[in-house]
Specification:
alpha+beta, 10 helices, 10% strand, transmembrane helix, N-reg_PII/ATP_PRibTrfase_C, UPF0750_membrane
């Protein structure tokens, strides 16, 4: 890729070694705290069992009056041991902290105020809070254990995909919720589970405002020079072959911000009004001129 470096950004301190581990631990602790708060503020008081060990603990509290934190520890400990056996010690080490501190935070924050008794609001805001917390835990390269471990064990033993294993386990929890708490509560649990997944995905791939443009033209050299000089962006020249003609040609790939799309199209149009331009979203871009991740 030809590079333009007009954005003189100071180099970032690389996150590795002890600093990387410190950041990971901080993310796991903060994420576990947020998850525990969301669970106690929204899910538990409204009896929303949106999958996972936390959902099972809601059912146990409703059915037996069991303390959710104790239920989660009781389930996480054997699952953690199975994870070490089937998935290896390294996975077990990364799961140990989250498996322990999440129930601890749930126990310590159990007497907080309840913001709403509306189950729809609780499922939405609880899903946002749990998704945010779990997303931070995953960013810290950690895990809160629970049925995530079970899903990975099922994947290893059966060959099922991880996503299918998670759906089967969470679906089982929500089915149990329909019998224990009623069909309506199970539907709220589905809403909470959906929102949680969307928030985690947003944290994983980012809220994209970046686009990728592919430009096919007979004047690629003129267009590339105009982009380099007028738009101040680098670009990549891809070797391609026409599917109908079989002719070799060059395709330009340009990564730009949302606010640069109009200028890019104007530049291309000014050089070659008949150019073929494809613009699509880039969920996350790392590198010079964009976000840099250690």
């Amino acid at each position: 890729m030809q590079k333009i470096n007009s954005r003189n950004k100071p180099p970032l301190i690389p996150l590795n070694g002890p600093l990387r581990h410190t950041v990971d631990i901080a993310l796991i602790l903060i994420g576990s705290l947020i998850t525990g708060l969301a669970f106690n503020l929204f899910f538990l008081p409204n009896r929303i069992a949106s999958g996972g060990v936390s959902g099972l603990s809601v059912l146990a509290e409703a059915w037996f009056g069991a303390e959710p934190a104790f239920t989660q520890w009781a389930l996480n400990i054997p699952l953690f041991i199975l994870g070490v056996i089937f998935l290896g010690k390294q996975y077990g080490i990364r799961s140990l902290l989250g498996s322990f501190v999440l129930p601890l935070f749930i126990f310590l924050t159990k007497d907080g105020p309840v913001p709403t008794t509306n189950p729809l609001l609780a499922s939405i805001y609880g899903g946002i809070g749990v998704g945010l917390g779990l997303g931070l835990v995953f960013r810290g390269r950690g895990s809160t254990g629970g049925l995530t471990i079970a899903a990975q064990i099922i994947q290893k033993l059966t060959g099922f995909s991880f996503s299918l294993s998670v759906v089967l386990l969470d679906g089982t929890v929500i089915t149990l919720a329909a019998f224990v708490l009623g069909m309506e509560q199970a539907m709220y649990a589905l809403i909470g589970l959906f929102v949680t997944g969307r928030v985690i995905n947003a944290l994983e791939v980012g809220f994209s405002t970046t686009k990728v443009a592919y430009i096919i033209s007979d004047h690629t050299e003129d267009i590339s020079q105009a982009i380099l000089n007028d738009l101040d962006r680098g670009l990549t020249k891809l070797n391609a072959q026409g599917g109908y003609t079989g002719d070799n040609r060059t395709v330009l790939m340009v990564v730009v911000g949302q606010n640069e799309i109009t200028r890019l199209k104007a530049i291309v149009r000014s050089v070659d009004p008949s150019a073929f331009v494809i613009i699509t979203e880039a969920h996350e871009v790392l590198g010079e001129g964009f976000k840099r991740e250690a």
